[in-house]
Amino acid sequence: xxxxxxxxxxxxxxxxxxxxxxxxxxxxxxxxxxxxxxxxxxxxxxxxxxxxxxxxxxxxxxxxxxxxxxxxxxxxxxxxxxxxxxxxxxxxxxxxxxxxxxxxxxxxxxxxxxxxxxxxxxxxxxxxxxxxxxxxx
Length: 137
Prior knowledge:
By secondary structure, the protein is α+β, with helices and mostly antiparallel strands. It is 26% helix and 16% strand. The protein has a domain at 28-118.
């Protein structure tokens, strides 16, 4: 005998009169990028000089963003160019990269890239229009 069934409706706006309606608010692309940016390993000296903010919990302890982001995105850093990088960039004297064997981070990076391309839309060719006067004789 099958168990009980429930109907849940996902909505963009609150529906207080509808039983089982759940308001679903999604992040913007920029909000999603900000969220996964917490998966970047920040060099300790960047914290020390105030180049990046330090998030603290309610007790004043440094917040561990890995508890929130999990394996969603991990970007490593080092002074030497990585050998096993899926993507890498040299920035402010350090190498930052996603490891080629980190499937979760590679998937997240690819997803963000694809959504960014979709939101960019079609780029139209805005070539100048040339008008030539042609006189009839």
